[in-house]
Amino acid sequence: MASSTVHSARPDRPAQPNLAFRRLRGRRSAAEFAAAVRRAAREIGERVSCDARYIGRVEAGEIRCPNYAYERVFLHMFPGRTLTDLGFAPRSSVRGRGAHTADAGPPAPAGGPADPHHPHDNPEESDVLRRAFMTGGATVAAASLGPLGLALDAAAAGDPPRRAGAGHAGALEEAVRRIRLLDDRHGADGLYRRAAAPLRAAYALLDAGATRQATADRLYAGAGELALSVGWLAHDSGRFDDARSHYAEALAMARMTGDAGLEAHAFCNTAFLARDAGRPREAVRAAQAAQRAARPLGSDRLLSLLALREAGGWAGLADRVGCEQALARAQALHGRGPGDADPEWMSFYGEAELEGLEAQCWSTLGDWPRAARHARRAAELQEPHFARNRALYWAELADDLARGGRPDEAAAAGTRVLDLLDEVQSSRVQTMLAGTTRVLLPHKRASGVSAFLERHAALPRSRAS
């Protein structure tokens, strides 16, 4: 593990704290300034999950030099200034042993993302994560759990601290970010069972309690989000009963603490699961409950996603009118743009996901040409680091084209999925692709179909079914 400590004799180390950056914030609170950073990022097409904690770390001098995404945002916010003008060390001075850590602040596990606030900036570390994930073992567990693995060893072993502190809450929040990062890149199949251990540790911390109410609230919120993340890993890997249990745990925590955001998230995931499990009426009701919880939160993007969850339920009920009405709401809300109230967990929800979920609705209703149009747009729009979703959208497109009588195009889209299976392990994607191959079997003579079927048949059994 790279040390976060740089010898004090180094002349390029910035003063502690970063007074220049603090002056730029002026009278704004750290949270208000973080919101301004997120707005500036959107103006230039960047995506950063800046919050008050990140601003505090910068001002304390813990972040000697921001990662490239934050650098672009800060220089956009303060044109004409350099990183040095903003109180940071030159990037060249933080290369070598401490480089990644300097960008990230507190130490990260070997092979882990450099910055949980913008984890996709370092292709070398991304490749380390990919190799660790595909080979399995303890390395990926460490990469997944981040400081949780260090902070909660005792809790996981059944010996929780007498009282949980802010450090435990922070470690829990970090673990959620890292699990989501690996899921975005690689899918759930290789990650689910390893992610269950920190969830048990989180429950042990809840039992231990906290001396401060603010810390207790963070622990419950963090444990709830972790339960949802682990539930999603179960969901995506086809373990529907496990997913339902985890979602129910998160909903119970939300209700106990009056956390409307967590409640909306739990109902959102429950609606999606119900749709996939063939319970469309439950999907509609859960999505509507999520919308009731979310309305006071002020996030149009969240309400847009929840309307899509409702649309999926109506499609499962073969209610085209109900589906179209929910889709129209989702599109209108999405069109209002992102906002400061959007939850951090919604980083995946952009135009590509909107198109992909609409494609699933039309596919469920049997409108294959319309489904294919939206699926193609989703696949083309999706950012590269969301590898699992790229595979999902191409698989959706392949299936819609196959069922719509366009076998050659379906085979080409299916081949794109096969190209991604070296880094993506998702039972949901694999099941969709297996269904597509069955539809294409009678069309072996069509251009490219035979080669696609042969390549699919050569996959290891765990990936082909």
Task: Explain how this protein is built.
- By secondary structure, the protein is an all-alpha fold.
- It is built from 24 helices and no strands.
- Helix 10 packs antiparallel against helix 11 and helix 21 runs antiparallel to helix 22.
- The longest helix has 24 residues.
- The two termini are 38 Å apart.
Name some characteristics of this structure.
single chain, 465 residues, mainly alpha, 24 helices, 0% strand, globular, disordered N terminus, TPR-like_helical_dom_sf, C1 regulatory protein
Brief summary:
Residues 92-125 are annotated as: Disordered. The chain has 465 residues and is mainly α.
Q: What's the layout of helices and strands?
A:
Elements: H1 19-25, H2 30-43, H3 52-59, H4 68-77, H5 99-104, H6 123-135, H7 138-145, H8 148-151, H9 153-156, H10 166-186, H11 192-208, H12 213-236, H13 240-257, H14 260-276, H15 280-294, H16 300-316, H17 320-335, H18 351-364, H19 368-381, H20 387-403, H21 407-420, H22 427-440, H23 449-457, H24 461-464
Helix pairs in contact: 2-3, 10-11, 10-12, 11-12, 12-13, 12-14, 13-14, 14-15, 14-16, 15-16, 16-17, 16-18, 17-18, 18-19, 18-20, 19-20, 20-21, 20-22, 21-22, 21-23
Distance between the termini: 38 Å
| Average pLDDT reading | 79
* Distinct helical segment count: 24
What is the global morphology?
Answer: globular
Structural class: mainly alpha
The helix content, as a percent range, equals 55-70%
Alpha-carbon Rg, integer? 23 Å
Q: Low-confidence parts lasting 5 or more residues at pLDDT below 50? A: 1-14, 95-158
What fraction strand?
under 5%
H and E string: HHHHHHHHHHHHHHHHHHHHHHHH
Characterize the main sheet: none
Organism: Streptomyces tagetis
Protein name: C1 regulatory protein
Biased composition (Basic and acidic residues): 115-125
Region (Disordered): 92-125
